[in-house]
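Our working data are protein records whose layout never changes between entries. Instead of coordinates, the fold is spelled out as a row of discrete tokens. Here is such a record, shown just as it appears in the course material:
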Amino acid sequence: MNASSSSPASRQRVAILGGGPGGYEAALVAAQLGAEVTVVERDGLGGSTVLTDVVPSKTLIATSELMATVAGAVELGVRFPGHGTSDTEPEGAVTVDIERVHHRVKALAFAQSMDIRARLEKEGVTVLNGLGRLDGPSTVEVTEGEDAGTRVEADVVLVSVGASPRELPSAKPDGERILTWKQVYDMTELPEHLIVVGSGVTGAEFANAYDALGAHVTLVSSRDRVLPGEDADAAEVLENVFRRRGMTVMSRSRAESAERRGDSVVVTLSDGRTVEGSHCLMAVGSIPNTAGIGLEEAGVYLSDSGHVDTDKVSRTSKRGIYAAGDCTGVYPLASVAAMQGRIAMWHALGDSVEPLKLRSVASNVFTAPEIATVGWTQAQIDAGEAQGDIVKLPLSTNARAKMLGIHDGFVKLFSRIGSGTVIGGVVVAPRASELIFPLTLAVEKRLNVDDVAHAFSVYPSLSGSLAEAARQLHRLAD
């Protein structure tokens, strides 16, 4: 069977391996440009982003945010049945039904996946269910699943196969007590004591979420602080918040193994210490899903880590084959994957295109408080990689923050010395993911700090601190 045998010869044929953000956004662009598009996806459209990663985890986090808000309501004068009349908040007034939460998480993920399928089908995209494998540089074969045996001839191929949780041989997940971030949503009870191994973004987000939901959490970090890849001041704020809320944070503690013992899990550290809990979440990175799908045989270069090497318009080492998303080793963000996919199709199909600009990518850590960043970092400025002035304003002096009972967080703005051009920033606050957008726009459009300072901000508002930071940078420029 050939999925494209009846297509007109004049139409470009595009085959996409993987239906995550890189794949389905590329498919929409290619269809818009008149190509005949086939997407091969095994697990469901949206990929891990929609089904097991971003959408589910942020849905879970939304519930945890509500729990955290309720926990802090006493300070604002709000009382709940069972809380008594004192300012001391007793246990048990608000609880969570974790099975119901996880059911909602999976239902929303499935609904989002179906919405993506409906959109692709509306645009005339053919969706094949199964595992796609390259059989040479211009042929895709479906080797598993409902459409196994189908072969697709293509003029352009996009590889967007994503990544999977990294597993340690000494800490094999069993899906019940030792878990990856794909498996947590199958838990039917709230962990009594969750050990999270790994303090990167995934580990920090899940540790924060389950702590807010009522589990005791121990966060095991091999580094000297949580979120070693983020702004140091922001990471310090978050770690202090974690400890204040009762989370156990074990820094400079490398996990060597995790072993299930009945209804508990014992994590052994490299120095011989052990930590015992009811469940363990392994958040120790990911590996690209590039093995065994014919990439190297087709002439595509893979790095030692298995990632596909691409340029700034998503081309691989083999002409006609592009790649996007987590399998490329570029920022593991859904927004970046989607842009890589769009850029690939714009370039391959002859539309106007600009190379991927990582400097204007905004990212966010969905903890409480959230940490959002864009552009150059303070570490790069301190190292002399960029010449910048820095202003940092604590939210504790912001009137709206006081009204909302916000005690932790800040805004930090970076501008180029001399010109005053905004080159980056950090926001640590509730909904920092929303507050970072003005800074992202300023970085993307190369706005001057005066452009930001002269724009009206609502009073009182958290965004007012961004304008105030810009005003202070103007004084530095003088």
In short: Confidence is low (pLDDT under 50) at residues 1-9, 87-91. The longest helix spans residues 98-122.
